[in-house]
Design goal:
Strand content: under 5%
Helix content: over 70%
Largest sheet: none
Number of strands: 0
Number of helices: 25
Distance between the termini: 72 Å
Radius of gyration: 24 Å
Shape: globular
Length: 588
Amino acid sequence: MGSIAFTLITCAFFMGLVAWYSYHKTKNTVSDSTGYFLAGRGLTGGFIAGSLILTNLSAEQLIGLNGQGYSANLSNMAWEVTAGFSVIMLALVLLPRYLGGAFTTLPGFINNRFDQGTRLLIVLLFMLGYGLITIPSVLYSGSIAVLQLFDIPNMLGITFEQSMWIVVWVIGIIGSIYAIFGGLKAVAISDTLNGIGLLIVGLLVPILGFIALGDGNLFEGMKTITTEHPEKMNAIGSSDDGVPFGAIFTGMLFANLFYWGTNQYVIQRTLGAKSLAEGQKGALFTGFLKILVPFLMMIPGIIAFHLYGPGLETMDLAYPTLISGVFPTFLNGFFLAVLLGAVFSSFNSLLNSASTLFVYDVYKVVINKDASDRKMIRVSQWFGTILALITFFISPLLINAPDGLWTLIRQFTGFFNIPIIAIVLVGIFSKRVPSIAPKVTIILHVIAYYFLIWGLPTFFNVELAINFIHIQGLMFVIEVALMLVIGMVKPLEEPFVFKVNAQVSMVPWKYALPVTILLLSAMVFSYILFSPIGVASPENIISGWFWPATIALIIVTIILYLIALKSWNKKYADKLLSSHEEQLKKEA
């Protein structure tokens, strides 16, 4: 009983510390709508990266990815490592447009390029996605993780279902306080602090696991996982794996691009950047942090396989079992605080973004066009409170959901992620596509996607022998082609002209392209390392091809880095700035 009390007290202390610092840094900074929704356009690269990574990483991934490492191999790391392509696209292409137009929401950008009807359709997609899929699943999965890692029912002497309701409400209320009363800046600061804690725990667990596996010797433990069952270290997925290697270049590429480039609850941090340079720093740094995920959230699962064998009841018990076996009990309170921080960071970010979408794209557009800043903040707080309460009641009910819930959730996101990213990219790179094109695309996508995933098996008993990730990639290509054809058949009378309305400095980061080269190189190296020529080699710890491939990659990286530093970066900056200056002259 004493250890339980100590865990709860230390957890409350660390969470209180984060809350106090977040309050201290946001005090008197949310008096207007820009301060509340975009952190006063004052976020620096470090806070943006910290908030982005913790918003993205949740307890579901902590449990789920380690479970994949335990039961299969590292092929699922593709979702994490290849996010680098998407943050590069965000930093170099999308962010200059978003900040150049001073947009608060993605639907605002859609309205600027197409029309209000398309904007409202996009908002509807977001709201249905957030309200019915993302927010309830984040709360539920986070609560499951807490219940698996800490025996709450036994700790409090209650049933599992009662524990679920309590944990959901505790996480939800804490997250709501940050999102509803503190705005984006409070969310970003608390996320960054919790992110530091998650990094500490993430590094500590595999280190302690390696020491336990090596009977007190860290390096013996590391040697064991590369010499015994080396196939588990392989990230090159086959057709039998959850993520075939080829899927990286089809639907996954576009799903990741939607998530990192157009998903409101992710990009809102970059929309609040102090300058384009700071936004680019934050986005690109996030790419490097994502490359660490396999080391922090999949290797522990492989360590658990070697320590406990394949006999655990479910793969989701791999990480909890490892924690209970190697993690010092006196740090349990700190770990619980970090875990809860990871969970409610995703929740409060979703809540903050849903409120922002409602106020800017529904309330101020349809209901009260002349709403004051105070009114907008108040409406946002009421909307956030109502939405939070609804999800508090929905989330625990997922305990009755069928097996395979998480695959189902990933499939459901295909209803809104593919059409949104297709519309954004067509909107940016075309000037003649009319507003009817995205509307037709959204309606056809919802119908066609339903039939391809669920309708054909249900009504016609036809199962498509193709991974749903490939289906999403195929639909992206078809929908882009459809919009371009509509643009040729019924083009805009006048080509669309992007209007500059920048509220921050639009000078790009002077190391944007060189750092992009380093990020791409790090992604390639991750696949060299976790492949049959790397630590997954059946011959030895690494194969004879590892060092030649690594040295070749280093040489190519150095050459491209120097070219980018001396030439490409200046050309990119000149083109970006001249484009903005040209637009300003036209408008003058």
